[in-house]
């Protein structure tokens, strides 16, 4: 892997967090002091984040997390990048570290963790079925060969689709997602529904690509930062997505330039230029269409926001609420 100045870190840890609001403030301030940007979610059930920063700052951040005994076992997926992968820093408290509404607790029971090498060894097992736990636009851009996919917008819809794999309940079912976090709950839910032999790819697609070269992952992997999509397969890559406009093979994922549409679709470079970043002629002529700069990614305008401002705003809110 080419060494670059910046790192992009993806991680999660399901563990009980007392006083998540208090830890949120501590965590946010550490990120500010170490020039980190990204999205971090803290909840009573754990910690989940993707952040970017200079190599040295990211190393401090990983040490900071692991120095807390609650998060000492956190596994990090670390990718090299040539710049920040985010424009802002948000550290928020939520009910769940990944939205699911599934009635399961991954700290009690979940699918058997498969390390990337073990996952690779099982790919040719005829008794194995891979099940993708990601959203439509993610698996349309890239997925493992032969994987089962669901027509769902988010993990909350999983109960509506379990019947589609009912006939596979006695197979070796391996769930996978981008970084592994969704599968902690998805695999637990399948076990609750009577599936008997359930696994999950530990660390997800990203870790499999980093450690095993991504063999048999077709297309590209959607990520939730400025990069939008990343290459995973260094062994037998194949483009499976097609341009939303002309239908030619394209793994170039963009957001429609029309802010009121913002559709996540593959659009080739030629069509993007012709349509000025829009997914249709209607969107190209829409008054809410944003200027197209060739990337197809549109961060929220900053309004002079800074990470420290976000921290101060949080403290001010707590004072108004009488919590400080």
Question: Rg from C-alpha positions?
Answer: 20 Å
The named CATH superfamily of the largest domain: Rhodanese-like domain
The strands making up the biggest β-sheet line up spatially as 4-1-3-2-5
Structural class: alpha/beta
Briefly, what is this?
InterPro entries: Rhodanese-like_dom, Rhodanese-like_dom_sf, Rhodanese_C, TrhO, TRHO_N. The chain is an alpha/beta fold. The protein has helices at residues 20-33, 55-66, 116-122, 136-141, 181-192, 204-212, 269-274, 281-284, 307-320, and strands at residues 6-14, 37-43, 46-54, 75-81, 89-93, 112-114, 128-132, 142-144, 172-176, 198-201, 217-219, 221-222, 229-230, 253-255, 264-266.
Task: Provide an overview of this structure.
This protein has 324 residues and is α/β, with parallel strands linked by helices. It has 3 domains: 6-97, 2-Layer Sandwich (Alpha-Beta Plaits); 112-219, Oxidized Rhodanese, domain 1 (3-Layer(aba) Sandwich), CATH 3.40.250; 241-294, no CATH class. Helix content is 26%, strand content 22%. The protein contains 9 helices and 15 strands. A 5-stranded mixed β-sheet has the order 4-1-3-2-5, sandwiched between helices. Strands 6-10-9-7 form a 4-stranded parallel β-sheet. The chain has a two-stranded antiparallel sheet with strand order 8-11. Helix 1 (20-33) runs antiparallel to helix 9. The chain is globular, with a radius of gyration of 20 Å. It starts with 5 loop residues before the first strand and ends with a helix. It catalyses: uridine(34) in tRNA + AH2 + O2 = 5-hydroxyuridine(34) in tRNA + A + H2O. Residues 290-324 are annotated as: Disordered. Belongs to the TrhO family. Its EC number is 1.14.-.-.
């Amino acid at each position: 892997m080419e060494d670059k100045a910046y790192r992009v870190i993806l991680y999660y840890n399901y563990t009980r967090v007392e006083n998540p609001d208090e830890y949120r403030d501590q965590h946010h301030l550490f990120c500010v002091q170490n020039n980190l940007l990204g999205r971090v979610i803290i909840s009573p059930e754990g910690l989940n984040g993707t952040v970017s920063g200079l190599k040295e700052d990211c190393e401090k951040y990983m040490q900071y997390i692991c120095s807390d005994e609650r998060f000492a076992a956190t596994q990090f997926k670390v990718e090299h990048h040539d710049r920040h992968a985010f424009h802002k820093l948000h550290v928020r408290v939520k009910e769940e570290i990944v939205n699911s509404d599934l009635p399961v607790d991954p700290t009690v029971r979940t699918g058997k963790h498969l390390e990337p090498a073990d996952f690779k060894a099982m790919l040719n097992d005829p008794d194995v079925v891979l099940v993708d736990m990601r959203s439509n636009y993610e698996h349309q851009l890239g997925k493992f060969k032969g994987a089962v996919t669901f027509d769902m917008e988010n993990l909350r819809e999983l109960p509506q689709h379990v019947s589609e794999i009912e006939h596979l309940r006695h197979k070796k079912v391996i769930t996978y997602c981008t970084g592994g976090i969704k599968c902690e709950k998805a695999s637990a839910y399948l076990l609750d529904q009577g599936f008997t032999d359930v696994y999950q790819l530990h660390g997800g697609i990203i870790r499999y690509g980093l450690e095993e070269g991504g063999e048999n992952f077709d297309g590209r992997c959607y990520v939730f930062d400025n990069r939008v999509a990343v290459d995973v397969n260094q062994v037998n890559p194949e483009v499976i997505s097609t341009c939303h406009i002309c239908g030619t093979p394209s793994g170039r994922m963009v957001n429609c330039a029309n802010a009121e549409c913002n559709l996540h679709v593959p659009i080739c470079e030629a069509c993007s230029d012709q349509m000025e970043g829009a997914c249709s002629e209607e969107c190209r002529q829409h008054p809410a269409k944003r200027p197209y700069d060739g990337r197809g990614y549109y961060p929220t305008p900053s309004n002079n926001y800074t990470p420290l401002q976000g921290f101060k705003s949080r403290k001010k809110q707590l004072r108004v609420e009488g919590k400080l």
